[in-house]
Design brief:
- There is one protein chain.
- About 25% of the residues lie in helices and about 15% in strands.
- β1 and β2 form a beta hairpin.
- The protein is an alpha/beta fold.
- The strands form 4 sheets. Strands 4-5-6-7 form a 4-stranded parallel sheet.
- The longest helix is centred in the last third of the chain and has 21 residues.
- It is globular, with a radius of gyration of 17 Å.
- α1 packs parallel to α4 and α2 runs parallel beside α3.
- It is built from 6 helices and 11 strands.
């Protein structure tokens, strides 16, 4: 909901791929929640603050009010964001069917494509979910699993020693919701925008310091500054959980 009082300062109207019209207004709540985690306004005396306070969120809607959508419309969104200069794409969605067209669209973008590992408590190396499974071949992808407050894998989270890259908190995340409200939600969908927001904060910090980071640099910085923990050693390529402070300090 780009009219939410905690989002309006940082969010553009975007695009609706279902109707092929301007304005990606959320009517499900999932997108509003993830947007707040990325970039809800800070120091405004209301609600919550996102990871990156000074960010431009470009929403693109391809799922309906029930949370269902077509891969063809997801591809429209990826292309729309690429055409409008997105440097990071946060993707809290997935499915069981492979698509060459989706693979090609992700491959063609120059953005860091952050994507949820999904919530089936499954090894992605053995049982692929898409688009997460494309990460083995596409270097601009970053696949995120969900972790608990005690730094273990969330019970529902997928993993994959060669498919997933890192974990981030995903349990009972409080963020913006429909009707100017707020709600707690859990899932790899909630962990993914934490990583996307971290990537945005790192880019902002790099720009402020006069440094330039490529997509590959940004991905590498996030992965090499995780807190490596025993619970994640065999579950993802980095063996760790996101540490935003370390990522920013490493610039």
């Amino acid at each position: 909901d780009y009219n939410h009082p905690d989002l309006t300062a940082n969010t553009l109207p975007g695009y609706n791929a279902i109707t092929d019209t301007a304005g990606g207004m959320d009517d499900n709540g999932h997108g509003t929640h993830t947007a707040g985690t990325i970039g809800a306004a800070g120091n405004n005396t209301i609600g919550v603050a996102g990871v990156a306070w000074d960010v431009t969120i470009l929403p693109c809607k391809f799922m309906d009010s029930k949370g269902s959508g077509l891969t063809s419309n997801a591809i429209k969104c990826i292309r729309y964001c690429q055409q409008n200069g997105a440097k990071i794409m946060s993707n809290s969605w997935g499915g069981s069917s492979a698509s060459q067209a989706l693979y090609d669209a992700i491959s063609a973008t120059t953005a860091l494509f952050v994507v949820a590992a999904a919530n089936a408590n499954t090894d992605l190396d053995a049982s692929p979910s898409y688009p997460a499974a494309y990460s083995k071949a596409l270097p601009n992808m970053l696949v995120v699993g969900a972790s608990t407050t005690s730094d273990t894998k969330s019970s529902y989270s997928n993993w994959g020693q060669t498919t997933a890259h890192l974990f981030a908190p995903g349990d009972t995340i409080y963020s913006t919701f429909l009707n100017n409200g707020y709600a707690s939600m859990s899932g790899t969908s909630m962990a993914t925008p934490l990583v996307a927001g971290a990537a945005a904060l790192v880019l902002q910090s790099a720009n402020a310091a006069g440094k330039s980071l490529s997509t590959a640099d940004l991905k590498n910085l996030l992965l090499t500054t995780v807190d490596q923990l025993p619970a994640f050693t065999a579950l993802c390529t980095s063996g760790g959980r996101l540490n935003i402070a370390k990522a920013v300090a490493a610039l």
